[in-house]
Amino acid sequence: MELIVYALAPVAIVILYIYLKDKYEKEPKRLLLISFLLGAIVSIIITTILYGVFDLALPLTNSLSVWQQFVQAFFVVGFSEELSKYLIVLLFAQRHKAFNEPFDGIVYAVMVSMGFAATENIFYVMESGPSTALLRAFTAIPAHATFAILMGYFMGKAKFSSNRIILNLTGLCLAILFHGAYDFFLFIDFIPGIWVGAFISLFIALILSRKAIKKHQEISYFNIEEE
Fold first, then answer.
1. What does the alpha-carbon distance between residue 119 and residue 70 come to, in Å, rounded to a whole number?
2. Is the pLDDT of residue 158 over 90?
3. 63: how many CB neighbours lie within 10 A of its CB?
4. Taking every pair of C-alpha atoms in the chain, what is the biggest distance, in angstroms?
5. Where are the transmembrane segments (predicted)?
6. How far apart are CA 213 and CA 227, in angstroms?
7. What pLDDT was estimated at residue 4?
8. What 3-state class would DSSP assign to 24?
9. Is the whole model's pTM more than 0.90, yes or no?
């Protein structure tokens, strides 16, 4: 039980942070919970299926080739995980009437992503212990959050734009890009010091995420002022 608390604590902190950043019109807690559960269950299932498909076509796991690890990071892990989250936001949250301002894209994308991260983190922490929980609290969990914020920023814009398809896919591709970059530098750990690239990519994603949150907050504020 203690390990589960360690695994879920950073997820709860991210959720609370985003919830408080949604200053002008809070989303229904029921929809937030459903989004979280869809991420925790459905997203994991979709990802597992996609992993299986890729594993049949591209059995890469044990390879040390830089190119193969690149494919693994971007086209297997990054694509599979972010697509699974994207589909839930696209097919469930974005269609809901409560999704009525651009910032909602960030809120729902983060909720789905934190659901995914919660399930994933429980498995890792139960297997490897408190030290893994501490490490992932400052790496994997913030990484999942930033990928979601970047995706949600564009999906929030898409809801109220005539270029919905382009903006939605932009959000997906940006999440895959940063997720892939983060994992790629960790996968090629046989190159000394290359892991630093993962934290550089995470740092850039964090900066962009803060800007995305601020920009959508400003849009929400001006919309309220106009009303």
1. 25
2. yes
3. 14
4. 58
5. 5-20, 32-54, 74-93, 105-126, 132-153, 165-182, 188-208
6. 21
7. 94
8. coil
9. yes
Q: Counting every residue, how long is the chain?
A: 227
Structure tokens of 127? 């297997």
Among residues 86, 56, 87, 60, which one has the least CA distance to residue 73? 60
Cα separation of 76 and 149, whole Å?
A: 21
In degrees and rounded to multiples of 5, residue 25 shows phi and psi of: -155, 100
DSSP states along the chain: -HHHHHHHHHHHHHHHHHHHH--SSPPPHHHHHHHHHIIIIIIHHHHHHHHHHHHHH---TT---HHHHHHIIIIIIIHHHHHHHHHHIIIIITTSTT--STHHHHHHHHHHHHHHHHHHHHHHHHHH-HHHHHHHHTTHHHHHHHHHHHHHHHHHHHHTSTTHHHHHHHHHHHHHHHHHHHHHHHHTTTSTTTTHHHHHHHHHHHHHHHHHHHHHHHHHHHHHHH-
Q: Are 3 and 124 in contact (CB under 8 A)?
A: no
Asked whether 83 and 46 are in contact (CB, 8 A), the reply is yes
Looking at 42-56, 118-132, 200-214, which range is the least confident one?
42-56
